[in-house]
Amino acid sequence: MRTGVTIDLRARRDAGLADQLRPLVEAYLGRPTVEVRFWDGSRLGPRGGPGALVLRSPEAIRRMAWAPGELGAGRAFVAGDLDVDGDIFAVVAALRPAGQRLRTTLRTVPAAVQAARRLGLLDRPPPPPPEEARPRGLRHSRRRDATAVSHHYDVGNDFYRLVLGPSLTYSCARFVDDATTLEAAQDAKHELVCRKLGLHERPGARLLDVGCGWGSMAIHAARHHDARVVAITISEQQAQLARARVRDAGLDDRVEVRLQDYRELHGEAFDAISSIGMFEHVGAARMSTYLGTLWSLLRPEGRLLNHAISSVGGSRLAGRSFAHRYVFPDGELIDVGDVVLGMEAAGFEVRDVESLREHYGTTLRAWVANLQQRWDEAVALVGEGRARVWLLYMVASAIGFEDGGLAVHQVLGVRGGEHGSSGMPRTRDGWVA
Length: 433
Fold this sequence. Notes:
By secondary structure, this protein is of the alpha/beta class. It has 2 domains: 3-118, no CATH class; 142-431, Rossmann fold, CATH 3.40.50. It is built from 17 helices and 13 strands. A 7-stranded mixed β-sheet has the order 7-6-5-8-9-13-12, sandwiched between helices. Strands 2-1-3-4 form a 4-stranded mixed β-sheet. Helix 12 (287-297) links the parallel strand 8 and strand 9 (298-310). Helix 12 (287-297) crosses helix 14 (336-346). One of its GO terms (molecular function) is methyltransferase activity. Residues 118-145 are annotated as: Disordered. Keywords: Lipid metabolism, Methyltransferase, S-adenosyl-L-methionine, Transferase. It holds the Pfam family CMAS.
């Protein structure tokens, strides 16, 4: 603790930190709707709720003072200077509207500046936690995309297995009822994708799985529909484990896992293409290249199923957002309407659009439960900072899907055949087993 802070706290001990820091808190949150606790035991806001925001040290205020908005708060949480006592979903949900409204800096709030100065919080800011990423180079170039993907996915396969569960599937599941387990829900999602692609009607079809993760979709398609699968990823750790899982499943003759960028695919032909949870890394500027490449790889009457998170109007993660710095560097969410237009421009006939928004909220809550139940193991695997990144990101994402701020859509397109033939079934009846 810096000398200036210590002297001031001794001089104003009777007033309590809550009174001194109220201008700063209200500059950030408005009038608090959840309890806010400070390291000296003083408090602001209503008591007795499901959870409380806890500022454990002056560093929490210093981080937020120097980086107003979600980045400063995120840094404080990752570093452990800011914490939540109780129901983290309730606290983040209560604070989310304030975070969305915040567009100001401390320079516009004189009382907050004075409070920060009194407490010695306007000197040099603390360094960001080491988990923060700042990718370099041309956005969505192959090299920068590889760096961004590695930051997110090469955290460690054991950590992902802990969070995602036995299915090792890092995308929205499909819960057919309240009793459905996470593993069964992921299996149901894979089966839905296979049926939309018509694999159940064409045993032996050649499938390209773009952004294959740890191989779960490829294994499902080969095991249940005798598909011949080429599965690609640009994450080395994913490719290694996916190959091992394919071998363990006895599917080496039907599944090939490649460490390959979609832009490197040329001169091959597939009956179907699945892209599940990869499109968020493509970017709007590269969408036409991505969709055009996939169209060129399909045989006539071949189908593409694009499963991706979206938002109304689209959103490119800001450089100072928590998600960009800690979770998905360079991530972009594209409006589903623009996805449809982009697919049509590439030559696809769009045949179906389905939202699974509520299912993603349920999926994320299941992942959070896995992480919280095995917290000590997670920290041992990746360190407390990285575990806290994932906790905050998944909680905030779940709330985003539940309140409609985020969506996830499956868009099905077909490359037309001779005389406009599509090969599509007359109804959706066969899509759900």
